[in-house]
């Protein structure tokens, strides 16, 4: 990894044994299934954690590169990969610098990750780089609240304890705007409350498309057109 991996052993333990299971108990599996439904081909998941998405990948996925920078979570993800229904390769890297060639994936997946990355714009630029033209980003994220009162609470928590307690997580990010700013077209979007109303309760689940490659110019037939003055 170019920059040192974020070692967050306390958060890793807390997420793997407390917060992650609590999310699943609250019904996260339903959203994970919806996030991954219909995916095919080569897929990259950024910030895979300990692999809670793995059981839900559909059989059309030929290869999943699961990127996780936190060592403890990555080790647990490697265990989960062995039981996954699709071939999973777990790699240690940050989303800001993905270990992949340009245009080498059909789809990318983020779930509850863009709230935590150090540089959201850099991660989205990397995702765009590794996706083929017309490839899709699937996202399930908690985001900035709709009401101004809850936004105020999010701002206060983001500026104080929340990122420290929750592995770098931020509550008030406008992630859908960031996805658009990165050059994606959002083609499906659902906003809902999960797991409960409150500062971490506004979720979005959707799909964004990397623009397709521009069509090549049509081949000219016939003699070359005259150029210069008088050409009309
Ligand atoms: C709340 S956990 C979500 C894990 C998993 N995606 C899930 O749905 O259960 C946030 C994850 O983002 C990862 N993360 C934090 N910074 C990252 C970065 N710069 N690049 C990639 N992943 C990152 C953390 O290590 C952690 O696994």
UniProtKB/TrEMBL annotation:
For this UniProt entry, the molecular function terms from Gene Ontology, in alphabetical order, are: methyltransferase activity
Assigned keywords, A-Z: Methyltransferase, Transferase
Gene Ontology biological process terms from the UniProt entry: methylation
Does rRNA-binding appear among the keywords? Answer: no
Q: Which residues form the Methyltransferase type domain?
A: 44-138
Q: Name one Pfam family in it.
A: Methyltransf_11
Where are the compositionally biased (Pro residues) regions? 211-226
Q: Which InterPro entries match?
A: Methyltransf_11, SAM-dependent_MTases_sf, Thiol_S-MT
Query: Keyword Nuclease on this protein?
Result: no
- Specify where the region named Disordered lies, as residue ranges: 204-232
Query: What's the protein name?
Result: Class I SAM-dependent methyltransferase
